Amino acid sequence: MAKSFYSQQRGKSVKKLSAQHIVVLLILVVSLFFIFQYYVIPWGTAQFVVPLFQPSGDKLEKIGFVQFKGLVWASTPKEKAEELLKRGRIDITKEWIDKEFIFDFTFEKRTEKIHGYVKGPQEFYAKSEVLGEHPIILEPWVGFWILALVLAVFITALITMVMPTSFGFMAVLFDRQIDNTMAKIRLQTGFSDEIVEILTMPDDKLSEKDRNDIERAYRIIWERTISEELASPKQGFQFDEIFDENTDIVMFRNDALYGRIKEYFSDFVLKEIEDTKDGLYWRRNHIKIFKGLRLYMAHHFTEKYSNNVTGLAYGGAAFLIVAVGIRGLKFIPATKPSFILLAIFLEFTMLSLLAITLIYTEEEERMDKMLKKMEDANRSQLETLRGQQYDIHQLANVLVGQSAEIIKSRVERAIADYMTSDDNIKKVVAEEISQKILIGLRESFSESATSKDTFRRK
Question: What pTM was estimated for this model as a whole?
Answer without folding.
Answer: 0.74
